Amino acid sequence: MADRRNQLVARVRELLAEALGASRNRSAEAQTALAAARQRAVRIRRAAAGVPERVGAERDRRLTEIETGHAARLAELMRRAAEAAAREAPGAGSAGWSTWQPTPAERAEPPGMARVGTLRLPEQGHRQGPRGDIVAEPVPALVTLLDGGHVALDGDPEGCAAVVSALLLRSLGRAAPGSVRLIGYDPDHLGGGLAGFAPLGTAGLLTFVGPGGLGGLLDDLVEQIRRINETVLAGEYASLRELAATTGRRPEPWRVAVLLGGDELSRHERGQLDRVVRAGAACGVHLIVRGVPLPDDPTVTRVRVTADSAHVDTLPVRLDPPPPAALVTETCRRIASVVSAGPAPTPFTDLLPPPEQMWREDSATGLTAPIGEGPQGRPVLLTLGDYPPHALIGGPSGTGKTNLIFAWIGALAARYSPGELEFYLLDFKEGVSFARFAQGRRDPSWLPHMRLVGINVNTDREFGLALLRFLAEELRRRADAAKKHEVTKLAELRAVDPTGHWPRIVAVVDEFQMLLAGRDAVAREAADLLEDLARRGRSQGIHLVLASQDVRGIEALWGRPALVAQFTLRIALPKALRILAERNDAAQSLPKFHAVVNAESGLPEGNQVARIPSASDWETWSELQHRLWRMRPAEAAPARLFDGDAIPRLADAPDFRALHAPEVGTPRGPIALLGEIIDVQARSAALRLPRAPGRNLAVLGTRVDEACAVLDAAARSLARQHRPGSARFSIACLDPDADPAARALYEELADDAAWYDEESVTELMAETADGLGGPGATGTPHYLLLFAVDAAAGALAARVGRASGLEHLRRILHDGPERRTHVLAWWRGVARMRADLGGAGARTDQIGAWVALDIHGGELSGALYPGTSGPDWYPRPWRGLFFDRAVHRTGQTIIPYGPSR
Ligand SMILES: Nc1ncnc2c1ncn2[C@@H]1O[C@H](COP(=O)(O)OP(=O)(O)OP(=O)(O)O)[C@@H](O)[C@H]1O
To answer: Where's the FtsK domain (predicted)?
Structure first.
């Protein structure tokens, strides 16, 4: 039993030991696991502690990134907004006050908006500057006024006044001087931003309406809107802005009414205010109000100002300071002085079609072109055709006649090509402005339509006559052509003869009364020609435009009612008298640079007032002329310029250039050119010297230079028709003053010339007379050029052999021409010539031709000139009267050629 018990104890011990061992192992394992777990926990805790730090950094990084992007985007948007604002409110519309100056919009350009401050954004836009600094980009706060709408102000008076003066100054700065008119209504004398604009009042650009005047003011604005809608926009345009954009014209000013408080409005006034708000902006009528309720309308911008903030509609705004007072008054003063100086002329380009449209018109039925702008901004047209055919222009000196002629010629020349229209222009007053139409030294261009320009012709009425004769000839040519084609009018002639050259002709004569002045042959013939041209030119496309500053010019026509009646188109410049019908005094109240245009012979119902653009200053004109000149046809030749003050040169004369010597022998009837004829083609006066009795020339008068010039031209032109060595030129100079000219001629003629003086002239006479031989003898052509031959009378009176020198001279004059010996002699008076010819009663028929210089017509009576009283000749410098009994009925005025040297 004990064993059993011992065995049992041993077994229990054994089991216990096993159990203890096992549990020790387990415990150790547990310990290890615990330690590991503890370590993990620490690690985890540590790791866990690191996690939020990383997430936060990431979040912050992202946030910063988003913020930067946002700021950049905002800055970019604000930059664009600022740029857009600068576009919407260019120049004076938004410039800062320190650099502000007026920048008027072009006429087709809208004036734009006006800046009053900057937008106050919740997050102000920034962008990084180059060094990382922050740069603010303010966005301008803009308000629409001119052409856009109205502004209603409310709140702090000082802030409102700042907005009013900023808006007004910016509006004035964006418009041409005078094109913004302000009307103030300030019954409580609040000033309200208007005060600084007072200088505009002197030019009528700022008017005030007194207390109680609001109703009248609103009625007036409504009336303006009605008128503009009916007569200016006239259903064609929705607004003045559209009209300006389409046509480039702005015929109405902007009217800005500034209404500052006052009593409550009556029903009528409210109604009128409503109308202005609804319809005003399209007609350039705008309101700026404070203390006057404006109805809600899309055109109304509301500006609310409190002591520390401001809003434009709903946008918060930081208002600009008001413009400096000095800037306001100085700007207004300048505008007022420009306006007081007179209305700005409309630009000349208004009269012209666009370049691609030039020379597109057809003149078959007439010529139509604008001359200026009418009161409603519409062009006023001038027409020349079957009706009205001719025009009279009148206006005292300085009222713009010349300018009007330039404007009209330019408007026509730009529309009709030179094949459709030709001009002839004659200016009887002193001045050279029309010379521009012809080619000049300074400017090689000319107006391709211009065929003739006569300037400084005041003493050369013959030139006017020559033009009229030329036109009469052209009229005859046209009438003949019409008859041949069995038609009556130019339009029909052009239809049946489409390849013919039948342009309309416009002949302009400025100060035409000079042509008709006096009761002499020139005036009589001129009036007859004018009458004929006026009557018949109408249907043949020849149109007369006569201008005069002087009522006497018109009176010269008044005596010829049939002539005056043809001039149905009348153009009266300010203060012109008698151009319009008797009781039509519209020209008396015309402003400067305006004209009454009347196509009804001046009857009041035909009046149209036009504002004439400035066209005559050199730059304005030459721009057009150069353009048209470049368009000229290849064969176009410059206009003939006749300048009464210029002395022509023989070497330039077409007739001189055309002379040449025959291949063999002597010319049958050589020609001596004496001077330029006063005519349209610059021809030379030519004396034919065939072998026929009387073919000698006497130059009569005391003017040395002119006499020498006539003999010089005669000799040089004759020499050109003889080969060297085939003619003799004997030059006798008996007046020392003529010596240089005679010597120059002697040198020019070289071997063909011989020189004689007082000593040797007698020999010349004797030898020449003796050499004449019998009546059939025809020797070498011999020309005796005797300068101041009367000075040799003493020497010639002496007998040499059988006869005296004078007798020889008479024989040469008598028998010479038939033997090719011609005398071209200068006597210093008619009586001296007669004496040399044999005394007072001597025959003069051996003097077949003469040129009279300072000799009165009466002295030339008798055998020298047909009739009893001599020619109508009043001597004047550098002019001569040429008469050739073989070809002339009346004398011909010539201009001696200038010295050839
Ligand atoms: N429409 C106009 N706009 C601006 N300036 C003008 C206009 N018309 C004329 N003028 C200017 O007025 C001045 C006188 O004009 P213009 O020479 O045409 O007058 P006029 O009547 O022909 O005078 P006169 O007969 O004395 O020559 C010139 O300096 C001219 O430039």
So the answer is: 377-582
Alpha carbon of 434 to ligand 1 centroid (Å): 13
> Are residues 332 and 471 part of one domain?
no
Look at the chain and report how many structural domains it folds into: 3
Assigned domain for 443 exists: yes
Is 798 within a domain? yes
Are 428 and 333 in the same domain? no
342 pocket-lining for ligand 1 (C-beta < 6 Å): no
Which mutation among 433, 611, 616 tests ligand 1's pocket best, with the greatest number of atoms within 8 A of CB? 616
Closest C-alpha residue for ligand 1 atom 15: 400
Strand partners, 562: none
b/e sequence 405-439, b meaning 16+ C-beta within 10 Å = bbbbbbbbbbbbbbebbbbbbbbbbeeebbbbbbb
- Residues making up the annotated binding site for ATP are 395-402
Question: Would 373 be classed as within a structural domain?
Answer: no
On whether residue 53 sits in a domain, the answer given is no
- The CATH number of residue 554's host domain is 3.40.50.300
Same domain, 585 and 683: no
Instruction: Give the pLDDT band of residue 707 (cuts 50, 70, 90).
Output: very high
Instruction: Indicate if ligand 1 lies below 6 Å from the C-beta of 397.
Output: yes
> Which structure tokens are listed for 722?
């003889």
Cα 23 from Cα 29, distance rounded (Å): 9
pLDDT digits (tens, 9 = 90+) for 459-504: 888 899 999 999 999 999 999 999 999 999 999 999 999 999 999 9
**3-class DSSP state for residue 851?**
strand
For ligand 1, the distance from its centroid to the CA atom of residue 433, given in whole angstroms, is 11
Whether 403 is in the pocket of ligand 1, judged by its Cβ within 6 Å, is yes
Q: Does residue 863 contact residue 836 with C-beta atoms inside 8 Å?
A: no
Q: Look up the pTM and report it.
A: 0.66
Annotated binding site: 395-402
Range of the domain at 142: 98-340
ipTM of the complex: 0.98
